[in-house]
Design a protein that fits this description.
The protein has 328 residues and is α+β, with helices and mostly antiparallel strands. It is built from 9 helices and 18 strands.
Length: 328
Amino acid sequence: MLESALHALTAAYGPSGRESRIREAISSLAEPLCETLQTDPLGNLIAFRPGKSGKRLMLAAHMDQIGLMVTDVQEDGFLRVAAVGGLKPAIAIARRVVFENGAPGTVYYETKTKGPGEAEMEDLFIDVGAKDKAEAESIARIGDVAVFYSPLQIENGLATGGALDNRLGCAVLLEALAGPCEHDLYAVFTAQEEVGTRGAGPAAYGILPDLCVALDVTPAGDTPKAAPSAIALGKGPALKVLDNSVVVSAHVRLLLEERAEAAGVAIQYEVLTTGGTDTGAIARTAGGVTAGCISLPCRYIHSPVETVALADAQGAVQWIRSVMEARL
């Protein structure tokens, strides 16, 4: 199921604040695995299944992806853009993109005074093949968002494509939901993580779980001259220790370590000195929520060629199912 879910989820459109289509794709897969499905005012999708322990377990994975929002339609038919989420201009240049209505485009930059590595977001534009402003506006308008067109490819145990951050976490969570759980289980597919972890906190506030475990990708450091990181593809999912938004409490780390050992899952340890995840927003909710994070190693994050090892994802499934069986 993991691979088929990953194909379906990475194919679904869903940049931050425009998650309706990816929410529909997840709903169709989650419906047989839960008792109720609801969407809150921020757009988070919450799948619920009752348990018997009297405890509440929240599992969270963000469903939104990065993109490019149209800020202006020029008289010559080119579209000026702004980043939705952490998108570097150099990575977007010479890439194919697609709008929610299916219209394709090509991202390029003003070449007269700068090279691609020097280009800033204000230098970028999307070419939709329009001859003038009127034709361009029939394709895309101000506020529309384009995402990378990058169909998923799986080969030699690796998956490569766009939106694996964090459709991989969503697919892992859906796979884990097929397992038993003694607790009231809330599987939350959060909105707007890429623009400031905006959905996760309100979702946690409405649930007030006894424990939350978030799922997200983390940069792998196993490529030539990569930024320093002990994380590598194929060596297992990672236990978050710290990122820029949270220091995971010692008792949560211990619980997650014990559950990984019980499941026979080899794990890595993540110390991320930049960036953050929904974990931090959830931990700061209300009077504080007990929260941890399982991180999935990923190369080339926030690009059209994000690359992950399926074995790491399968390990995360077993780890989460072990958490679902733990005493809280």
